[in-house]
Amino acid sequence: MTTGNERLILAGKRILITSGPTFAPLDAVRAITNRSTGRLGCAIANSLWKHGAEVVMLAGETSLVPGATPYAGGKANLTVERFYTISDLKNLLEKYLTTQCFQAVVMAAAVLDYVPVESLEGKKRSDEEAWVIRLRRGEKLIERIKSWAPDVFLVGFKLEARIGQDELIARAADLMNRARADLVVANRLEDIDASRHVAYLIEAGKKEADLCVSEPLRTREAIAESLAVRLGERLAGRSFIHSRREQV
Predict the structure, then answer these.
(1) Whole-number Å distance between alpha carbons of 236 and 18
(2) In this structure, are residues 41 and 60 in contact, taking their beta carbons and an 8 Å threshold?
(3) Rounded-to-integer distance, Cα 50 and Cα 134, Å
(4) C-alpha–C-alpha distance, residues 12 and 143, integer Å
(5) Reduced to 3 states, what is the DSSP secondary structure of residue 197?
(6) What is the pLDDT, as a whole number, of residue 217?
């Protein structure tokens, strides 16, 4: 619950956040997935509603979610809906973004880059020596967000491994351009463990080629708090009756 001393910098804002892993079935009982736990997404959702936002959280089947539904002004301030596959998440995103108004979308879910070409209806026999699985590229859902909600403030996430900071920032900038994201949270797998999570907030600068990169944020709580504060700053006074210039 919020206290009277906290600034509700996101009061009156509706924010949709995705969190946790996606799954792709191989057969009726097996699936491929990724290592996402949803811990960062959970921390961000907590920080958003603490600052007064009404939050809709789309959470992977095994993702952590806030333990209790917060209330503000006598109504629930957090709605959680679960998904399993990329298709499930896509359908939920399209439903919410084409029928309801959100000021920001935070795409923290770990969407699989590759999915099986086919999925067996039954269970694959376990007495065979090998099982060759072909994968194809999965859909980049973040690149669909602005087609459903052209004026929403979009936050993307870029996770890489075994690369330097300059390359991490360059790849985050590429994601920002491809998805028309307004801000990207960039991090590396080797900088993440149970108690530590180093990340950078990356935004476009005043000049087209410039980037604004935050100081390193070293815990999930610091990332979540900094992101909530930055959203409060960027959304303050922003009109959501737009000219859709990006679509011209």
Answers:
(1) 22
(2) no
(3) 44
(4) 27
(5) strand
(6) 98
Helix or strand (DSSP H, E) at 60: strand 54-60
β-partners of residue 80 are 57
Locate 207 and state its tokens.
């000049």
pLDDT category, 239, cuts 50, 70, 90?
Answer: low
Asked if 242 and 151 touch (Cβ cutoff 8 Å), the reply is yes
Neighbours of 101 (CB within 10 A): 11
Nearest residue to 155 (alpha-carbon basis) of 218, 123, 191, 199: 199
The encoded tokens of residue 159 equal 């996770």
CB atoms within 10 A of CB 195: 8
Asked if residue 56 lies in contact with residue 31, where contact means CB atoms within 8 angstroms, the answer is: no
- What distances in angstroms separate CA 108 from CA 11, 17, 137, 159, one per listed residue? 21, 7, 19, 10
- Tens-place pLDDT, residues 181-213: 999 999 999 999 999 999 999 999 877 678 999
Dist CA 216 CA 223 (whole Å): 9
Q: Which DSSP helix (H) or strand (E) runs through 148? A: helix 145-148
180 touches 146 (CB < 8 A): yes
pTM of the entire structure? 0.92
The residue count for the chain: 248
Helices 39-50/220-235 angle, 10° precision: 40
Backbone torsion region of residue 74, taken as left when φ is above 0, otherwise alpha when ψ lies between -120 and 50, otherwise beta: left
**Vertex 107: Cα angle to 104 and 110 (nearest 5):** 170
